[in-house]
Amino acid sequence: MAIAEKIRKAQENSSWIRKMFEEGSRLKQERGADLVFDFTLGNPCLDPPPAYLQCLQEEILGSPAGKYAYMPNAGYPETREAVAAELRRKRRISIQAEHVLMTCGAAGALNVVLKTLLNPQEEVIILTPFFPEYLFYIDNHGGVARPVETRKDFSLDLEAIDQAISRRTKAILINSPNNPTGRMYDGESLQHLAELLRQASRRVGKSIYLLSDEPYGDIVFDGRELPDLFGAYQNTILVNSYSKSLSIPGERLGYIAAHPEIDDLAATLDGFNFCNRTLGYVNAPATAQRVIRRIPSAHVEARLYQKRRDQLCAGMQEAGYRFVKPDGAFYLFPESPVPDEMVFVKALLDAGVLVVPGSGFGRSGHFRIAYCVDETKIDRAIPIFAQVRRNRS
Predict the structure, then answer these.
(1) Of the candidates 349, 341, 330, which has an alpha carbon nearest to the alpha carbon of residue 44?
(2) Domains of the chain, first to last
(3) Segments of 110-159 assigned E as strands
(4) How far apart are CA 275 and CA 273, in angstroms?
């Protein structure tokens, strides 16, 4: 066989998100796009903010010398300073440009961080349900993913996390607001998690890092704000992306920000810089960096996703579904009305509605709806959700 056995097996177990998205493309060709309701892919439906588009146009039309030349691997210094200044404003911490590294999206950032930190067979705790690519990112760099269940309402189970920590534990990776649940971990729970990690680090005799994956941090509802982990835990590494906050996933722009007092700061930052280059990313996209430098505070209007959340939740509740109302992002993770969610997902598929089974996120008995779609699509799909549930109850 031409490809490695490990890759062949990984492909067989790869993302249900993409599998269902591809199934949706097939159905649209067979039935017509207006008769298929695709809620599989977390692809932003809002246009980028006008300020982004204006700055992008100005950057493309402008012709500064060397605008497309190589740059420092960590990114343009002025962009890193703009990101650091925004973090100082939001997180109230003395983070500087040197603590920030621009990356090819959050995915690139996580791979850089994991490559830098992990020794072979060291473990990274991930919280179930989780973004499925985490498994592959950790494996990419010789680590072992250690899934730990959250509670029934998807809140942190601190006792379970504590029990999972061992001498092999290098980090815990959290994602808040969460994909696939939309759950945002509250500040009190995160303070308790920070204290737990401090005690566990002393117990196992080494630093345990807290990796916070926050691409939905600007899409938070009901007047809430994302709790600040930098203020809670010294060994925090923040990973972020502009894909969702600016609706530019195709531009692949993100960053890593390390707590200024993280253990072995200089070596860690040098490691990020080295791995960004040697993993083949080299540097984050130049034009997007120049735009972000000018508008570091810009983001899409979260209220527009909140409106879709409320629309979907009202319809699903009336149809009899059970779920935890999302705090942010643009996903709903209802319970399946039948024990085997694959059976129910197939019934929805036959009716022209595409969702992603919860087992793809490590939590069976649920399914994910990505409601980053046109509001009319939600309206038209709700009666189908209701009918399929009645047929299967």
Answers:
(1) 330
(2) 5-47+301-392 (3.90.1150.10), 51-294 (3.40.640.10)
(3) 123-128, 144-149
(4) 6
Listing DSSP states for 9-28 in one string gives HHHHT--HHHHHHHHHHHHH
Instruction: Tell whether the model's pLDDT for residue 303 goes beyond 90.
Output: yes
**Residues 260 and 95 sit within 8 Å (Cβ to Cβ):** yes
User: Is the distance from CB of 254 to CB of 242 less than 8 angstroms?
Assistant: yes
d(CA 204, CA 223): 39
Q: From residue 184, give the alpha-carbon distance in Å to each of 141, 181, 228, 257.
A: 28, 9, 12, 20
User: What SS3 state is found at 119?
Assistant: coil
| Cβ(102)–Cβ(253) below 8 Å | yes
Q: How crowded is residue 390: how many other Cβ atoms within 10 Å of its Cβ?
A: 11
Residue 238 structure tokens: 């923040």
Nearest to residue 61, comparing CAs of 296, 299, 290? 290
CA 208 – CA 170 distance, rounded (Å)? 5
Q: Yes or no: say if 331 and 324 are a contact pair by the CB < 8 Å rule.
A: no
Q: Give the tens place of pLDDT for each residue, 100-136.
A: 999 999 999 999 999 999 999 999 999 999 999 999 9
Using CA atoms, how far residue 6 sits from 14, 265, 306, in Å, is: 12, 34, 41
- Cα end-to-end span (Å), the chain: 46
Dist CA 110 CA 239 (whole Å): 7
292 pLDDT above the threshold of 90: yes
Cβ burial of 119 (10 Å; 0-12, 13-18, 19+) is exposed
Q: CA angle at residue 300 from 91 to 133, to 5 degrees? A: 75
**DSSP 8-state secondary structure symbol assigned to residue 206:** S
pLDDT at res. 8:
79
- Express each pLDDT in 135-186 by its tens digit: 999 999 999 999 999 999 999 999 999 999 999 999 999 999 999 999 999 9
As a whole number, the mean pLDDT across the chain is: 94
